[in-house]
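Before relying on records like the one below, remember that each one covers exactly one chain. Contacts with other chains, cofactors or solvent are not represented anywhere in the record.
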Amino acid sequence: MSFRAPRYPSPSKRAPAVTSARPFELIPSDSVPVERKPWGSGNLTVLPRRDFVAPDGTWAQPHVTSANSGDSSNLPTDAGSGAHDVLTPSAHTKKKERQWQKWANETIPALLQPYLTLLRETDSLRESVSSASEVTCACRSHVRKISVACVYFERIKVIKVCSCSAALQLLSRGLFPCAPVEPSLAVDLNMLDYVKELFVRTPPNTTAWCDTLEAFLGNRKYKLKTKDSLRRRFGSALHWYAKLIDAKNKIVGQHLDDARQRLLTVQDIDSVANEPNMDNVDDSAQNKDSAQNEDSDQNKNSDHSDVRTRPSDYLRSRCPLCFGSEQCHNPDFTADVIVCLDACFTQKRRKNPRGGGRGPLDIHADTVFLSEAQVKEMEEVVAEKHPARSTTRKSKSKDVSDSATAEDGYEPSMKVPTSVLNGCYESFTAADSKRVKASTQMFSDTGLMGLLCRHDRVLWLANMTSPGERQHYALALVKQLFEHLPPAMTVGLLYDIGCQLHRSCVKWDFLEKDIMDRLVFGISVFHAFGHQWACQMIYHPRKCTGFGLTDGEGCERFWSSIKILIPSLRVSGFYQRLYTIDNQVEYLDEKSLKELGQWLLCKWKQCQERKTKAEATLALVNIAPEILRQEWAAQIVEQTKPLKKQSKNNANLAVTNVMTLISTRKGFQDNIAQLNLMLASGDYDNLEIEDLASQKTAIETHLEKIQNTIKKKRELLGVDGRANLAKLKNNKFLQVRMNASVLKNRIRTRLRDRKFELDRLERAYRQTTSSEHKLHNHVKSSVKRHEPGVVQLANKYNKLCDELVALKRSGQALAKAIIPAKIEREGLFKLDVDDDIWQDIGLDDDSDTGAIPAWLGDENTRNGIKAIVELDRCKEEEQRLGMEHCTMQEWMMEEWHAVLHALEDCDNENMKYQLQQRKLYLCHLCAVWEQKTKTLPSRYDMPATWGPTEVELMEALQLDQSASWDNETEDDAAESDADSELDGDDEELLEAIELSALADAYRQEGNMASSELFMEIRNDTWNIDALLMSGTPGPSRNSSPRKRNRPEGDNVYIN
């Protein structure tokens, strides 16, 4: 074997040497000199060249200068080779967007009418597709045919269709394609309908469904060519089939809206020509007719008129009971409609680790989400009117000092003192700081903010992207609501921190004056424990006028109903997440609409039960209702007064601190004396002398520090403080009362903190992941550990109350001094608004002088006040339920007449079929509503008919019964499982029962623990003394010296 010697170019032909000063060049790939293969490399394959693009868009092919390449410094760098397609990072995105546009702008509109025809011919897919309905292509024979795998429940069938109109041909066969052009797979419409219904009742999981289906068909020898191809294509078909259904619902809704507007126009003309006869009509009916005549002067189409005369069509479709009446404003109601606000931080979405955008625009046809522009606009308004304050430690300390020295009073338009509002703000701020909320470092979307009506129906949602509960989300939702309401309509708003939202709106003018004049703020019932008592008297829906028995917790129930979406939406796309939530809301709306009649019936029964109890209490106290209402008004005025001068309050607080330190010092001195006695006698009580010496040294160190602290605090006391200190030293009764006052405040704080923790526990009663289960157990154990401490504090407080009674009997108290009530162990942890834990009767100086009002000193009057307030709320609820009963019938009558009018004017067979289906649906809905509400009273006279005839209603009821009951024989029932009685129960009802049972069991365990501790402490005198000395270490054989010297956190006693 021989090798040819390599040839070297002559020195004259060599390229100039490359110097270090020559820059690194970028040239097109076709300009790079072609190198010869080395000898012996005949089997090697040289891959084609690829073009590389720099960030600025220029071609980035490196030019490596070699000996035979020549000088290419003049070659252009802004053009590629031209031989290959340039692959940029956005190529896949652009391809996906083109496909998306093809679906949305061409394929779905082209399939809409054929789909309507298919529904009519198959009776909404109840019947099989006939061969006559199949569409055949009229193209020439040379057009390419494509093979499509058709997936059914039990088989896979491959068919041939023309590539020019594949989607239309597949739809005519009852199939839906996976792609708009040349699909390789199609899915049976019945399967898509089934999966669509399934995924709103269970966590949506396309992967699990497709894996199951693929395995099921695989067992029957039906296989696809590629692995995982079903999941990718099935998801596309399912999504665009849902878009086709949305388009169908939208066009049917437009026909109904047009018919409704024509019908309303005719009614307007008739109402102007014929003035109604007002004889034999009660006052309420006259108010209703006058409101209708006033509305008839303007266009009833509120969506197109400059001034609305009734709620928008959007709101009327969201909740018929709130917005379906022709009477927009009732002067007898403080709020015409009641809504609630809340945020949810579990419905969040993770950031895409690979980056990328949101994908093509995909918004639900009936979306309930505010647009990003609306939220951004309100955010800018808030930022402009209330710039963010500095959060540095120095600024925080300055704010604390300013609030401590500021004069308490009322802010403009507020009925609660500034000190109370600050207390509520600090309470919820501390609670929020303890909650683990979504972080923007891990999540792109951090939660949802919802606005719901009192019937738990969603009005609007806002997608949150901030880590906390910012006010601009709530303000954007409120503003959107009022844009859809007539100018005379009033709204009651229940929010966890309603007092703070009201304060901000008044202080910074976030909302227009027209909105603020028609908006009544309140706080939700289940979160009222975080507010001060004075705040609850003004904002609690059970205490203030206008809210009836509405609790304001509809958002919490809604968050519970969509919790099944949490796992899948964590990793979904931006628009996919919003679209999925919109689908779930649509399903919940349909479910809730059928249950509105049952909702009214249940609320009426609950109202009557509470009303009966309140009337029984009033009969027992035997005090006139007018007197009780006057006493309640006097109590509100007295207990919502601003605090006295802050300087006096600060002095009292400093005196309390000094007395507490004196008490602690006495405990340390007693323990040192006991240890000295043990060392002197040689009786170490089975302890080592080193342990005793260590304890004595630690106690002496603490004692020295306390003495220095007492000395410094005495020097800082002013004249009033020193006088109060001297007064306390010489008056045992005042000392004990101050102890009780401080202790009760401490109990309230501990109970409130525990309630916040329990609130999270109750929300997570059914976890979705193992980590949530661990968190559930951790929260439960943490809360349980705090219960004995609260019970001990309650026992200490009750002992102090007994001591106050003894001191008063011995003549050591003022004659007019009021003894505070004890804390009952029953319901200690409930924190109900009517519990005595909120009252400080007999614990302040004001109760020592002057006449004692009945609301303060008379137990009978206090019970009567609670009953009369409860009775007033029940009467408000009765009036609202009667109005909603009338509104339900009015909405049904209008919808029924609109469908009939649309059927009369429609000449399209496909649309007639859809309108007929709507008529049957309304007939069934009317039958259910009328049957549930026939025993409920109406606020004003209504027609005898709801729209459908008696025959139509009876047919609808028979159809409902035949669809709801199975003809099960006794033998079949006997052989059924034991759990079969729960098969038909409502899932949400079972969840509510489970939540209630969990909470009751938890509280029962707490009450049992409370009872055991009460009994143990009552029967053990030494334990009482030990509890009184909490925080003062003493000798013990059951703990280490370090634990024995650790002070307790609840030392509030003065000896």
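Residues 506 and 513 are 9 Å apart (CA to CA).
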